[in-house]
Design brief:
This protein is an alpha/beta fold and about 600 residues long. It is about 30% helix and about 20% strand.
Length: about 600
């Protein structure tokens, strides 16, 4: 293979390689799915053979493929074609028009579902849609609108479909809002347990197996549209192993995956976590699979008693007293079997208790070579950063604060939101730090919002959270989203850089990430995405290279009509005052009190 000519040459570009010896080159040669050579146009074009495909980059910026270190991609793929995405939609007026049209075209017994990835601050109106607006837009078709992971709005048809009435009791940790007569209004609130939200949408019909295959392919292509070539999948509630992995496994077997996925196994039922884990240990092992689909480890949920959620509209929850014994049993079993894990933790108080456990386990089953890590860590202390470093752990950060920054400020104040999470302090200790989104519910899957947030510290509503010194450089932010994220699937020796022998995963950008205006970062897309030397997405002058995709199914799918992320107005609203907390502290109490 070494003496064979390259299969593909890209030339005439500005290629960021993350190779310290050649950080930027004009051309790249690809053979056998990996980088064969990088260098000048003359040097690389001289390698071409008669069958080599050559593509001129027209001076465009090229980066290593983006790697989302925390995305619920497998679950999202199963539902993508069912969902009306409000990610990036710039106004309530547009959102309500989409809802109206989709309701008119959704056949019974299906629902219209808006499943997270948006918040009210992205809208020009600067407020939430009302239940009256939702009922007017969709009077007859059941509608479920999820707002991040804190609340959901149901129209009257959905209330009827669920059988909710004045006698329906509130689930543990959740609230069904009611009118003065005690009848459900259509508002569901996580306080902070999201079970009330999960259980409501679980009643809606699912796609057939064939439509799930189609849906997943289209979601992966949507990620390719933004230059994503790898994901560390974080499992998810209702995503059972191995049953709910059959679709993604079939796509891998049939050669249809266009994103590399390393997936973690997520404990599903309280009280049975150790039993589930023991069963998985006998079924599979970390690293098992292909270059495109492989087992990564356990998490992000290891035991339900350790869940501290991510709802800044509610006070920080205190974890159960029995959490320690449950989590220690699971982590001990993982460490003894050399299984890496990831664990969700929003608050430093939770992380402190987790680290007490990890330190105890480390004494009898060393964990410092496992590539275990904390997910989120928005409020982590410097003391606990030091403890993670001592145990060989890492931290996967996401742009959840871009969607919840205003809520954090409401509860804790503007000074408290600084350095949440403290990325510079993580990097100063040499901690592995990977970037991502936590899409598709508590935040959008849109990677350029995440990069923009790291560089500007802005929320999607335009609120600036950090001082300039606490923002990342564009170079460092991109490194976290490429080489940085590769550590979290133990692939830092073959992914995240365009150097000899590494996977030929890259994105050709619509704008130069390093030179465009800061707010323009959020509007960047990929015009050519390559995974393992294979062209998986093309747009603009590269549209002719886009592989043919099957038609979206079912034909009434919102994706067929509206697509995915709305990138039409990437600049945030001009009004950036921080809203005040309503008297009841609820998300539906909006407005900032500034008088403008």
């Amino acid at each position: 293979m070494a003496n064979e000519p390259p299969e593909l040459i890209l030339h005439g570009g500005q290629i960021t390689t993350h190779d310290p010896h050649q950080p930027e080159v004009a051309a790249i040669a690809i053979q056998g799915g990996v980088v064969m050579a990088i260098g000048t146009d003359d040097k690389i074009l001289a390698l071409a053979g008669g069958a080599t495909r050559k593509i001129a980059l027209n001076g465009r910026r090229v980066i290593p493929g983006l790697n989302d270190s925390h995305l619920h991609v497998i679950r999202a793929g199963l539902y993508y074609n069912l969902e009306l995405r409000w990610d990036g939609v710039p106004s309530i007026a547009q959102a309500m028009e989409q809802l109206k049209v989709q309701a008119e075209n959704t056949p019974p017994p299906q629902w219209v579902r808006v499943i997270g990835g948006w918040n009210e601050w992205q809208f020009q109106e600067g407020r939430m849609p009302t239940l009256d607006e939702i009922n007017q837009a969709a009077p007859d078709t059941p509608v479920f609108v999820l707002h991040l992971y804190d609340s959901a709005m149901l129209n009257r048809a959905a209330i009827h479909a669920l059988g909710f009435n004045r006698d329906t009791t509130n689930p543990p940790g959740g609230l069904i809002a009611r009118d003065q007569a005690g009848n459900p209004t259509g508002l569901l609130v996580a306080e902070p347990n999201a079970l009330v939200l999960y259980s409501a949408i679980a009643n809606a019909p699912r796609l057939s197996h064939e439509d799930q295959l189609n849906s997943t392919r289209h979601f992966l292509r949507e990620l390719n549209r933004f230059g994503v070539t790898s994901v560390a999948d974080a499992g998810g509630g209702g995503q059972n192993y191995p049953d709910d992995y059959a679709v993604i496994k079939q796509l891998d077997d049939e050669g249809h995956l266009t994103v590399r996925i390393a997936y973690s196994l997520f404990a599903q039922k309280p009280g049975t976590e150790i039993d589930d884990l023991t069963r998985w240990l006998g079924m599979t092992k970390p690293g098992e699979g292909s270059d495109l689909l492989r087992v990564n480890g356990a998490g992000e949920n290891l035991v339900w008693s350790a869940a501290d959620f991510e709802n800044f509209l509610q006070p920080r929850p205190d974890l159960h007293p029995h959490m320690e014994s449950e989590l220690e049993a699971v982590v001990s079993r993982l460490a003894e079997n050399q299984w890496p894990w990831r664990i969700h933790s929003t608050y430093d108080e939770s992380i402190d208790r987790f680290l007490n456990i990890f330190e105890r386990v480390h004494r009898h089953a060393p964990i410092d070579k496992l590539h275990w890590f904390i997910d989120h860590a928005e409020t982590i202390s410097e003391r606990n950063l030091d403890r993670i470093a001592a145990l060989g752990g890492g931290i996967a950060i996401q742009h959840r604060m871009a969607y919840q920054g205003e809520y954090f400020i409401r509860r804790y104040g503007i000074e408290a939101v600084r350095r949440k999470p403290p990325i510079h302090q993580m990097l100063a200790r040499g901690l592995p730090v990977g970037a991502g989104t936590d899409g598709t519910r508590v935040a959008s899957y849109h990677p350029w919002t995440s990069l923009w947030w790291m560089v500007t510290s802005k929320t999607v509503g335009g609120t600036v959270m950090n001082r300039e010194a606490d923002c990342l450089s564009r170079e460092e932010a991109l490194r976290r989203y490429t080489l940085g994220s590769a550590w979290f699937s133990r692939e830092e020796d073959r992914k995240g850089s365009l150097r000899l022998g590494y996977f030929a995963d890259l994105a050709v950008l619509s704008e130069d990430y390093f030179r465009c205006e800061p707010d323009a970062i959020r509007g960047i897309e990929s015009v050519l995405t390559v995974v393992g030397g294979r062209l998986v997405h093309g747009a603009a002058e590269f549209a002719k290279y886009a592989p043919e995709m099957p038609k979206v199914s079912p034909d009434w799918s919102p994706v067929a009509r509206f697509g995915g992320y709305d990138n039409s107005l990437p600049v945030p609203p001009k009004h950036t005052h921080t809203p005040i907390m309503g008297a009841d502290g609820r998300v539906w109490a909006t407005g900032c009190g500034c008088g403008q």
